[in-house]
Amino acid sequence: MTDKFVHLHLHSEFSLVDGAVRIKPLINTVAEQAMPAVALTDRANMFALVRFYKAAMASGIKPITGCEIWIRDPEDINNPSSLVLLVKNEVGYKNLTRLVSRGYVDGQHLGRAMIDRQWLTHETTEGLIALSAAADGEIGRALISGNEELAVEHLEFYRDLFAGNFYLELQRTGHAHDE
Q1: Per residue in 146-157, pLDDT tens?
Q2: 89 is in which domain, residue-wise?
Q3: Is the dihedral of CA 13, 5, 55, 68 positive or negative?
Q4: How many contiguous H segments (helices) and E segments (strands) does the chain have?
Q5: Whole-prediction pTM value?
Q6: Domain count, the chain
Q7: Which of 14, 67, 132, 176 could cysteine-pair with 137, CB 3.0–4.6 Å?
Q8: Which secondary-structure segment (H or E) carries 82?
Q9: Cα torsion at 70, 74, 76, 77 (round to 10°)?
Q10: What are phi and psi of 115, to 5 degrees?
């Protein structure tokens, strides 16, 4: 049996600022490549969810619901870090929609819906899987700045918070600091 590749961090045209992928062509490509599943993790929103879910299901592909959220940096409010959240079950779906909604209602800054780190508790993250968001996440940023101690601190926080459902995300896209 060969291993199958599954995209777990992907932005669509609904990411508004940094996404260009259209839903139907995405699903067609995923089907052509015989990928069993695909996650949609638009930045700070779930606007494409219904269209994505219907298209994936109609093509026999497992849709994985997710979102790349912005985590407010209290020391630099204009430069939030990222965290990718994927839905594991119904509880996770409800928690993700609550977090995203709260970002819009209580966390907006300069038009960005941000999440305060203290909003992330065992209760609000139940049913969710988290990816560290590579260089855009708190761990990646700490490593890039040379602060390994802070990177380990962030790693321990998220590992404990997501109890077996936290993964370090690696990206090799040809950008500086990928390695």
Answers
A1: 999 999 999 999
A2: 13-167
A3: negative
A4: 5, 7
A5: 0.94
A6: 1
A7: 132
A8: strand 81-87
A9: 50
A10: -110, 135
